[in-house]
Amino acid sequence: MHVLVVHNRYASAQPSGENKVVDQEVELLRAAGHRVEVFERRSDDIADRSLLGKAAVPLLVPWNPAVRAELAARLRAERPDVVHVHNVFPLLSPAVLAACADAGVPAVATLHNYTQVCPPGTLQRDGRPCTECVGSAPLPAVRHGCYRNSRLATVPLAVSLSVNRRRWWSGVERFFCLSAAQRDVLVRAGMPAERLAVKHNFVPEPGARRAGDGEHLLYLGRLAEVKGVRLLMAAWDEIAASGGVGVPLVIAGAGPLAQEVTAWAAGRDDVRYVGLYDTAESRKAVARSVAVVAPSTWLEAFGLVVVEAMAAGVPTVAAGHGAFVELVEDGVTGLLHRPGEPASLASCIRRITAEPTRNREMGQAARRRYEQGFSPAVGLERLVDEYRTAIAGRSALARGGDTRASRGDGDSR
Predict the structure, then answer these.
(1) CA atoms within 13 A of residue 403's CA, in its CB half-sphere
(2) CA 196 to CA 186: how far, in whole Å?
(3) Count of beta carbons in the 10 Å neighbourhood of residue 49
(4) How far apart are CA 80 and CA 35, in angstroms?
(5) pLDDT of 406 over the 90 cut
(6) Can you tell me the distance from the alpha carbon of 319 to that of 228, in angstroms, rounded to the nearest whole number?
(7) Per-position b or e across 284-323, b if 16+ CB within 10 A of its CB
(8) Using CA atoms, how far apart are residues 322 and 326, in angstroms rounded to an integer?
(9) What would you report as the CA-atom Rg of the chain, rounded to the nearest whole angstrom?
């Protein structure tokens, strides 16, 4: 199979699960003998633009005509079987879908978040769940400045969502949702249910599994409010005030709360902030964990770190909402805490560290869950099956006359 992957890479200064997923899928497909090429832009490159070029970036978010022309020409020349779209913000834009229609190549898209129904993609505002824009015009997002706390910065995303909604829903053969929880939200928002398939991310074999009981609790990810970092700090302070749990908390990552975490951890022997780990360091840290903590306050569409812990035979303490409810079987492969409640998170951390035998049993159950649902073999089979479904759907439309593409091919900018 010949696949062209389309992705706008996130800035390298912060960890990106999405970049990681894209790279791992490309590697998986190539290792299986498929021909995979990449059409990408990099957010890192924005810094090298002229002042005028930087100022023009928001104008490209809803529509980038140069990308449409470049990608369409490449598709006509190379004729891939399918185009797999990931992130298109901010430099690619939904113009990539018009390019696919121009060249008559079927497109599939992985929905890594909720940007189809929420401009910032988080379904959250001011630290609380928010669905004001779901199923309606995204004016509330602009009014509240939901992206980077800025009305001005939110406008391009809101415009793109409004003018390109029909293009997305008509121009993509199959949308890959990362969890059933995410799919349910999108169906309720009006997205075409028949094109929304649940395809969990896979995780490569880590090469290191836990031996023994572990030596620390681990938070691994972006240091941001929506990831529950402040919630974790509050819960850990409560634990420390009552005597601790016998192992330190290790925080690995980077993000907007890095300075706050650094100051909080300074001078403490029960907390270590280690900065941003590379892949090898992350895998070693997970394998040495009593448990991995994933306290996100937003509705995670998946939760890659949870499955990475599973692969290493390590249980998770995770927020009991969003995809985590599907990934973590409470009391079997980990523990679920009440979302947004420091006391509940602290209680779960105490429980998972208090009984080493039970902890080991949960780690073993987590590993079995990984083997059954999230291994590379399972991931490859599901991915290729979905590609074939998309190709077959496009072929059927071509035989019957494809009016969808022509309806969605206007330059709605």
Answers:
(1) 1
(2) 8
(3) 12
(4) 9
(5) no
(6) 9
(7) ebbbbbbbbbbbbbbbbbbbbbbbbbbbbbbbbbbbbbbb
(8) 8
(9) 22
pLDDT at 257 over 60: yes
Rounded CA-CA distance 295/319 in Å is: 5
**Hey, is 177 helix, strand or coil?**
strand
Is the Cβ–Cβ distance between 362 and 334 less than 8 Å? yes
Answer CATH for 216-373 from 3.90.1150.10, 3.40.50.2000, 3.40.50.150, 2.40.160.180: 3.40.50.2000
Distance CA 404, CA 173 (A): 10
Candidates 363, 378, 360; CA nearest to 312 is: 363
Contacts of 307 (CB under 8 A, 6+ apart): 200, 201, 202, 203, 327, 370, 374
Token pair 């090298």 is found at 48
87-126 residue pLDDT tens? 999 999 999 999 999 999 999 999 999 999 999 998 988 8
Q: Determine the Cα–Cα distance for residues 357 and 366; give it in Å rounded to an integer.
A: 14
Q: Would you give the DSSP letter of residue 92?
A: T
Confidence of residue 397 (pLDDT cuts 50, 70, 90): low
What does DSSP say about strands 124-125 and 128-129: parallel, antiparallel, or unpaired? antiparallel
Q: Is 37 helix (H, G, I), strand (E, B) or coil?
A: strand
State both tokens at 269.
Answer: 């022997």
Read off φ and ψ for residue 294, nearest 5 degrees.
-130, 80
Region(s) of the chain under CATH 3.40.50.2000: 2-202+377-407, 216-373
Q: Is the predicted pLDDT of residue 187 greater than 90, yes or no?
A: yes
Confidence category of residue 405, pLDDT binned at 50, 70, 90: very low
Least confident of 13-17, 43-47, 108-112, 145-149: 13-17
Q: Tell me the two tokens of residue 176.
A: 């890959």
Give this prediction's pTM.
Answer: 0.86
Fold of 2-202+377-407: Rossmann fold (3.40.50)
Largest CA distance in the chain: 70
